[in-house]
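WARN no homologs supplied; continuing
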Amino acid sequence: MRKIKLTKEEKAVEEHLEEYVDVSKSEFQEIAQAINARKKDAVLNIRINHSDLKNLKQKASKLGVKYQTFISEVLHRLAQS
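OK structure emitted
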């Protein structure tokens, strides 16, 4: 049998499977609405300082996320405050 290689994200999900619980239909719809509200539907192209980008990539790496996701989350939190 061939062994399947999992990504970091897939391994994390697999390790935490026992933490998932059934939810009611209304809770599921609430979660789905929250996810849809966070969907990225706009494109932004910006130029930033090379060292700033390097620092952002390092911080994202420490958190185990992609740097574009990290930047998106930072911008989201700033926009919400």
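The chain has four helices and no strands.
OK
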